[in-house]
Amino acid sequence: MVGARDAAEAQLELARVQRVGVALIERIAAFGRFEKRKLFRSIRDETAWMALTCLGKRLGNIQPKSAIDPLPPMPEQEPQRTAEAVRRALPGLVRLTRYERRAAGRRDRAVRRLAKSDD
What we know:
The protein has helices spanning 2-31, 43-55, 80-118. The protein is mainly alpha-helical.
């Protein structure tokens, strides 16, 4: 029954990876991005902004620069919002496919071993 247990564990892992992919798309659809938005171009700009805001003084002649957000706003209407969420999630989904293939391969090998032992 070890083969059946291996197949079941691999199937559970496969289902888990698929749920993670769906959750990634849902999170991006809800919040518009997976990672936190960068507010400043560099640490130096952030420090200059804090000095100007908190102390009221400039650090030399540095004018703090905000980061440019390359992502446009999320569409409001469906299905465009979901399509944009999937587009933004693609890099993460591509990385998840490696785990999905590995789990499917383990499941398939375990099922083949089970079929072979029944013969």
